[in-house]
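Checklist before submission:
- one chain only
- standard amino acids only
- sequence pasted in full

Submission:
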Amino acid sequence: MSRVFEAKRNSKVMNLFITAGYPTKQDTVELILGYEQNGADIIELGMPFSDPLADGPTIQYSSETAIAGGILMDDIFDIVAEVRKSSDIPIVMMGYINPVLHYGIEAFFKRGAAVGIDGLILPDVPVEESGLIQQASEQHGIPLIYLVAPNSTDARMKMVDHRSGGFVYCVSVTGVTGARKGDEVGDSVERFIERINKNITRNPVLIGFGISSHADAMKISEKADGFVVGSALINNIRSLEGNKDWKKKHFEFVYTLRHG
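Returned file contents:
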């Protein structure tokens, strides 16, 4: 993943989130490849879960849709394997500890390494309690990516920086995921970006939660290495429901996130 940040040294890295199995398993593969073609540098692939503590209504909806469609963990790994036939874009799996435990920690990391996963984000696994996961992460070469938020202490930011691999995910606002008005996010970022840059020194920094436009992305990531967009993508797909050209129109939206 370091190659992405090296290549984008003079611009911003764009990390796009999509829920695996949303709208369907095959759609997810096509969306990932289309995202790459329209400017994505990293893909964050959500693992649907019935009780997503950090996710707002939009991503909850996409998870419920994927679960209703029968998505299983093996299907998610199959999605990555299918993408890998034609793309080496970094893919970070994002989700919650329960499905990982259900699958089996060792089995999860072994399969993830086999299909080419580049990182893992587990918002409900605090860095202080991640021993078993961290051990498996190091053994199989899949780095853990931790989150910091405006209410994180300086000491915790430094701990996260030390334990993270790939990048550190900076949550722009406290609360759950979801597109927000630019001012709400921008004001929050301004209040803690200085602490991020003081305490996060080993890893690149990506800002997420609340970005829904190119203007938002550029403003919020001005002093970071890049940005993450998730809920705005799901919202855009939902707004195009029933449109036979929905993927084409959706990719146009993705293009504007990158280029304006």
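Reviewer check: The first strand starts at residue 13 and ends at 19.
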